[in-house]
Amino acid sequence: MPTKHNPITGNQIVERLGVRPIINAGGPNTMHSGSRPRREALDAMLAMSEVFVNMDELLIAAGEEIASLVGAEAATVTSGASGGLVIQAAAAVSRGDAGIIGRLPDTDGLPNELVIQKPHRFVYDHLYLTPGTRFVEAGDAAGCATEQLEAAISARTAGVIHLESPFKNRGTVPLWQAAEIAHSHGLPLLADAASMLPPRENLRKFTSKGADLVSFSGGKAVRGPQSTGFLVGKKEWVEFARLVNAPHATIARAQKVSKEEVAGLLAALRAFVDEDETAETARYRRDMQSVVDRLAEVPGVAMSLEHNYDHYIPHAVITLTDSWRGPDGPEIARRLMAGEQRVYVVSGYLGDREIWVDPLNIQPGELEIVAARVHEELIKGAAGG
Ligand SMILES: *Cc1c(COP(=O)(O)O)cnc(C)c1O
What we know:
The chain folds into two domains: 10-34 and 276-382, Aspartate Aminotransferase, domain 1 (Alpha-Beta Complex), CATH 3.90.1150.180; 39-274, 3-Layer(aba) Sandwich (Aspartate Aminotransferase, domain 2). It contains 13 helices and 13 strands. It has helices at residues 10-17, 39-48, 55-70, 80-94, 98-103, 146-152, 175-184, 202-208, 235-244, 259-274, 277-295, 329-338, 367-382, and strands spanning 23-24, 74-78, 113-117, 134-138, 157-163, 189-192, 213-217, 229-233, 301-306, 315-320, 343-344, 346-348, 351-357. Strand 6, helix 8 (202-208) and strand 7 (213-217) form a beta-alpha-beta unit. The strands form three sheets. The protein has a seven-stranded mixed beta sheet, with helices on both faces. Helix 4 (80-94) crosses helix 9 and helix 11 (277-295) packs parallel to helix 13. By secondary structure, the chain is an alpha/beta fold. The chain binds pyridoxal-5'-phosphate (PLP). Pyridoxal-5'-phosphate (PLP) binds at residues 30, 80-82, 122, 124, 165, 192, 194-195, 217, 219, 229. Residues 30, 80-82, 122, 124, 165, 192, 194-195, 217, 219, 229 line the site of pyridoxal-5'-phosphate (PLP).
């Protein structure tokens, strides 16, 4: 519906472009356009468009507001959590030195190695390499022991990386211990916790366990502008990060965040922090339980409601069991995207026997459509269709 803010609808825009919209039951990933920005964020963006400011002043003040909202020593705005990873690495190499900041990604003669536990390697980790850095892996695919992490550190090390992400922290050195090891060598512990919200307690958790910089997304469950993120951490390291970040003429100049996006992120984060997490979780659980109940009768599938470190928001998980005779999970997901009403669900992340339904982006009225479409494709698949 057109609103007083907006005389046109989203459907009119995508129709004009010939782009078919989706119901997003797969969560806030960027390829499927993130999450829905909160009303508060959109209002703040529109309001912020009315004024001009000095961006250094705005970003410093925004960082202070984020820090007080989340209970961190310091914070700063980044372009997505990914932008935060570039900035973390650049901060570790430059440590506020203007000469070094000015020549990155040239790191000749500087400590430019980032130690990363092998099981923490992940799809976005090359962002850490943007400022002329390189990885030194510790441990192997099965895990990493403290001695292995310790042994990977040398005079060439600039920092130690730690990933907090679903399915990534098994058999590895825990954050508090990795931080102790890093600090004993005078190095920063750089953490990526992009998607680990909720629970809201994570806003404080990783810094309280010793991380010097922690990267979060503003465009996932926080529901700020899709392009935003923020770093929280120690005062000194946040300042090093801010100095290498846009809008300065540095390696991160291309990662600019507009004043409107900064204001949108602040409004979204305030609303996110204020929200009643118990009620939110109960709503997610109720919705996902209804999907579980609806699909339980399909022959050959096992349904479960998962809410844990790996599924940090309650998910309905469909497992194709040994008695399943239909197509694999990614094929079911493809068929759901090919229908008249396209429905996006996740499959293939952990092999092709699981399909996940994520409640975050499901809008009022859509849950029933999601359950009905998944039911339809599973019944068709089970019948050999
Ligand atoms: C989502 C995610 C990112 C990227 O975050 P953006 O805010 O989209 O840039 C980086 N790392 C991990 C572990 C993520 O889950």
